[in-house]
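Supplementary Methods, section 5.1.

A reviewer requested that the exact input to the structure prediction be made available. We therefore reproduce it here, unchanged from the version used in the analyses.
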Amino acid sequence: MAKVKRFQRLAEIRRMDPHEDAAEIYRLSSAYEFPWDFGRALELALFRTYAVPSIGRLAETAEFTDRTQKRYDDTALLLDAVVEHGFGSEQGRTAIRRINRMHRSYDIANDDMRYVLCTFVVTPKRWIDAYAWRRMSRHETVASAVHYRTLGRHMGIQDIPGSYEEFEDCLDAYEAAHFAWDESARRVSDATLDLMASWYPRPLAPLLHAGTRSLLDEPLLRALRYTPPSPTTRAIVRRAVRLRGRAVRLMPPRSAPHHARQNREIKGYPKGYRLTDLGTHPVPGVRGCPVRHIDTSSPE
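The structure derived from this sequence is encoded token-by-token as follows.
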């Protein structure tokens, strides 16, 4: 097999239609061009959702504080099964059914569901443009918005933004209106910080906590009531991540895809897993999700 040149895959993406070929463009972008960056960005997206009290409280009821690794693993594996295999595949359809059945167990407002969808679109682009080995191309940006519009339709979410710019406006407006302190949400955020630190040697935990907080913006730090890192710490951390991106630019491009199931951070299933077993399962007596859901036995 001939070696792939550094910008060859980007040229391939630019020859595609970002609407018709959105799923393939998003797969190439997330699994070949920026797998590490997408992973880190979606981790930071979790913190944004916790800063909305109605979402942060719900996360605590879903045992994010007690079974944090499992919740992290299940979220990553279910979302990425759709990316890896496609919406029309058996795996993709199974993942969507599990996501929808979990959401039916909780009283989730449509606006909150839409906001979480916005974080999946906006946070990775902002991270990649700031820290990755190159910025996201327009084709990749459009394809990302189309991919998550499709996922949102399968989840029964209403009033989904129509373009990346609309996703971004929706996210910024929702955060301005809803970011606020909540004790339960802070516990979920702390548990997630502890989880991320647990992936590395214990003595590094304080450094890793400070490093993660250095990547959070001021409104998010205020909402979660985290002590802002010193300007020096923030500058060092952000410069280090940017240097990592520059180093990647000089390396040979990835020749094989890297999906969430291959991440070292996924630790809950050393013997493998079945998509049907992932996530939470309905609890008798718990009120269902008010969001209208499509027939998940046959996703669009």
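Residues 149 and 162 are 7 Å apart (CA to CA). These observations are discussed further in the main text.
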